[in-house]
Amino acid sequence: MTDRVVVVAGAVYEEGRLLAARRSAPAELAGRWELPGGKLEPGESPEQALVRELREELGIETEPVDRVPGEWPLRAGYVLQVWTARLLSGEPRPLQDHDALRWLGPDELDAVDWLDQDLPAVAACARQRRERAEGTGEGARR
């Protein structure tokens, strides 16, 4: 089995709204929206990478809460894993590779042009939130 590169992304929620980030680079992704995050560096856990990436990209301190079930293929050799994250401090602002941020309510998730590879991850985040709100699913006990 070949090594794969794990890319972590944060489903950062505040007051029931999900934070989306618009890419400014690279050119082929510019103008489309994603869950912010980035690649694991050697020796990092996914949770450590997520905290570091959100600090570097958005200037915020976060706490990973739960892994969103599933993982999604990106380009060859890359896979996306998503965690819900709690905003601890800071006001999100686009610092690296993004030019805009937007908080999306549950009924606004289709209001932005998500990157193709982020669409199933965003849907999984929404499903997880619904299940928790309804008291069903794995995370219902929280």
UniProtKB/TrEMBL annotation:
Q: Which GO terms describe its molecular function?
A: 8-oxo-7,8-dihydrodeoxyguanosine triphosphate pyrophosphatase activity; 8-oxo-7,8-dihydroguanosine triphosphate pyrophosphatase activity; 8-oxo-dGDP phosphatase activity; 8-oxo-GDP phosphatase activity; metal ion binding
Cross-referenced InterPro entries: MutT-like, Nudix_hydrolase, NUDIX_hydrolase-like_dom_sf, NUDIX_hydrolase_CS, NUDIX_hydrolase_dom
Residue span(s) of domain Nudix hydrolase: 1-129
Q: Which cofactor does it need?
A: Mg(2+)
Recorded hits in PROSITE patterns, A to Z, give: NUDIX, NUDIX_BOX
Pfam assignment, any one: NUDIX
SUPFAM superfamilies linked to this entry:
Nudix
Q: Return the protein name.
A: 8-oxo-dGTP diphosphatase
Source organism: Streptomyces pristinaespiralis (strain ATCC 25486 / DSM 40338 / CBS 914.69 / JCM 4507 / KCC S-0507 / NBRC 13074 / NRRL 2958 / 5647)
